[in-house]
Structure formats: C-alpha cells, structure tokens
Amino acid sequence: MSSTPVVEIGPHAPSGDEVRQVARDRARVRLSSAARSALAAGRASVETLATGADPAYGVSTGFGALATRHIPAKARTQLQRSLIRSHAAGTGPEVEPEIVRALMTLRLRTLATGRTGVRTVTAETLADLLNSGITPVVGEYGSLGCSGDLAPLSHIALALMGEGEVRDASGQRVPAGQALPAAGIEPLVLEEKEGLALINGTDGMLAHLLLACHDLQQLLITADIAGAMSVEALLGTDRAFAAELQALRPHPGQAVAAENMMALLADSPIVASHRGPECTRVQDAYSLRCAPQVAGAARDTLAHARTVAERELVSVIDNPVVLPDGRVESNGNFHGAPVGYVLDFLAVAVADLASIAERRTDRMLDVARSHGLPAFLAEDPGVDSGHMIAQYTQAAIVSELKRMATPASVDSIPSSAMQEDHVSMGWAAGRKLRGGLDGLRRVLAVEILTAARALDLRAPLEPAPATGAVVRAVRERVPGPGPDRHLAPDIEAVVDLVASGAVVAAAQRETPLR
C-alpha cells in the first residue's frame, strides 16, 4: 500500500507540480534541514533588530500609514495579534480549499527561505496545519494584490493563532480554536515581525496562476480534440494544418496545435471521403482553418505565464526582508503586477479559445453551413430542437468570458491613507481566470457533445481512430442521436469527462498529443 507523498519545503523548493500535489492531492509537507538553518539565521537578525534603538518597520513600528508610530517592546506581541485580527477582513463566498492550500504552501516556501525572519516554530505550525488537513476559511473579497494578498493570508494567520474558522480534515466548518487542539496543534503567539511576514506575500495570486497553468494545458489539448472533431463533422480538410504551412509562421504553440490536429485527423475515412477532385470547396471557414493559430497563441501565452510563475517560485516576497548580510530592508517586491498581468493575459486567451469553439458548434447546427447535417442535428427538425439551445448556453458563457477578459490589473484604488497608492488587483485577476477556465471547460464540452452527435450522423462514414475514441468515450456516458431528451445531464456528463481528463486520455490512447 503506497504511503502519502511528502513534499520537501526549503529555500529552493517546492516546484509548481509539488504545490499542486499539496493543494489537490493532500500531499504532506516537511521542512528541509536547509530551511531550518535559514529560519534560525533569519530570526537571529530580527531579534537583534528588535533589541536595537533604531525603529524597524513591522518590528518596532506600526504598519502602513501608521509606520511612524514607535511600539514599545511590551506591546509588540499585541501589535502582531492586532495586525492579523484587523487584516482578516475578507468577505464573500468561500475560496476553494485547493486555492487556500496552495496559498499556504507557497507562504511556507517563502518562510523557509529565512528571509522573512520568522521563528522555526511558526513555519512548523503552518506545515502542521497543512498536514492535518485543516484549511482556514477565506473569503473571496479583500485583497488588492499589493502589500501582498493581505486579507486572504490574514485569515490563514488567524487560524494559526487559534482564531477564526476553518474546515477540518473531514470538511466540516468549525472554529479554529476547536480544530487545532483536536489535531494536536498548539496555537501560535506571534512575536516581532511574524504577523507581517505571514501576510505580506503574493501567494494567493501565484496559487491561482500555478493551478490555472496546469488546468489550461489540459484544456488546450482538449480544444485541439474538439476542433478536430468539428473539422471532420463539417467535412473540412486537414491540409491547412500541414507542417510546411505552419513553418511559414514559426510560432511554437501554433506548430504544436497543428501537429495535434494532424495526428487527430490521421486516417480519417470522413476526411478521405471528400479529398478528391469532386470536392469543390476551396477553403474552410476561419473557425476551422485557423484553429491552430488561436490555440497556438494561447499556448505561447501559457508558456510566458509559466516563465513568470517559475520566477515567482524562487522569489522572496516580504516587506521588510532579511538580506543575507543580516540587514532588514523595506522594498516593493510585494506588488503583484508581474503575476496580475499574466493572469489577465491568460483570461484573454481563455475567452478567445471559447469563442472559436462556439463558432464551430454553431456551424454544425446551421443547415445552410453544415454540408448535409440536419438542422440543429435534430431527429425531426421542427418537432425536435436538437442542440439548438446547447449553442445558446455556449454563447452565454462566451459572452461572460469576454467580460472576464477585461483586465483587472489596469485598475487601482488607493488605500491606507494614500500610503499604498497603487495596487495590482492581481487576486481579482486570479479569481476571474478561475471562473474563465470553468467556462472554457463547459464550452468545449458542448462542442465535443455536438461534434460527437454530428459524427454519428455521418455514418456509415467513420471518424479517425483518435476522434472516434473520443466519440466512444462520450457514448459511455451519453446516448447517441435520437428524439429530444433532457439535455442538461448530457452536457454535465461531458463536462465531467473533460474535467477528469478522460477526453484527452481517450484520444491519446490512439495518438500522442502535446
């Protein structure tokens, strides 16, 4: 019987994939010996500063616009506790546990660098919280994406103190003061700088980015599959996807998307059936012919976003920060612009992928453009409506995704009495990208459901081995063509197939895809 995987947390770990394992698969975490050494050294610098006569931000002063207030030593524990209580001001719907767990893991990674100056026990307690399956309750609204994701991180720090609400290992919402002792965890009493170090990071934005990059990669392959199925269903050609044509415009993502579509359409009897001189059509519509250009641009956008994520994974985000020589200096690395920009950029790509998928679906339903398919793929058009309203559902989602593509990162609202006068809104960019990915998943599911029905209606001609495998996977959950039936369960079944990776797996059993 395999044991639960353990992810080591240190100054240069974990990787993005390991963060995902902790967030989604409940992998355990462990501080490395290098992390423990770094934590001890960083803490020594803060303690030296705490006993000195010079004011140090977050150690012996207030915060934000109150940074000019000197705090005597006897009040500094209260200073840290008050900081967390006042900043835990999030509201709105509860953020998904996987995002919160990713956020916690990323903050632990920064603490493990030793550059934040927290005690080893503080990092250990955060690790214990993850390993016990306790997830603080975080509200969706509250972060401006500058000075870090203050409100979300404050709710996590509040739980470390034994306050606020959490989800226990069974998923029940309970007071932290009840959950921590039940798990054998002693609540923290924060010391100098620790409250600030726990909340002054861009970990929430990065959590959204890391999980989104993983999910979008699978959806990009799914988009190639859906596009190939629609090309077949609409009696399109694969000639536009040839490698020599793609090489004329050498964007790497475009080459991958075209290669995938060629592989998916290989040995297709449907494509072969209209390849001869009797076919009078010169070229396909843009939504078919340009699929690799759109999906390829999205791939290249994702590659850029991953580069940013990789840089953030080796960054130290805190203010003030402990430098290698022991100095503690203020800085602006907590500003979320680098992450916010790419979160917004990905939202644009997501909206456009969904838009082109909806256009292909609409072509399959239009008797004037579908090349022989019945109107709306209905059994008895007029009596039956077929997939008419499934396309409406796509259109509604695509419209919403276009609104979500409006960048959050171009907005800024000054805060903290104008001390924090420019903010990134990166957390908001992450939240809307998460919604956008769900919308794209559903739009692609409708295209696959519709294309599978259209391919069945092309019988006795058979689809390609790879696209045919996807049709069979759909048919394991959804019946084939027939009179109208309740369509929502069919859509949800294919959404589940897309989300689980079953659609990609079915195609990949026949041909490699990337």
From TrEMBL:
The keyword Lyase applies. GO terms for molecular function: histidine ammonia-lyase activity. It is found in: Cytoplasm. Its EC number is 4.3.1.3. Keywords: Histidine metabolism, Lyase. Its main location: cytoplasm. It catalyses: L-histidine = trans-urocanate + NH4(+). The keyword Lyase applies. It is an enzyme of class 4 (lyase). Pathway: Amino-acid degradation; L-histidine degradation into L-glutamate; N-formimidoyl-L-glutamate from L-histidine: step 1/3. It comes from the Bacteria. Belongs to the PAL/histidase family. This is Histidine ammonia-lyase. It comes from Lipingzhangella rawalii. The lineage of its organism: Bacteria, Bacillati, Actinomycetota, Actinomycetes, Streptosporangiales.
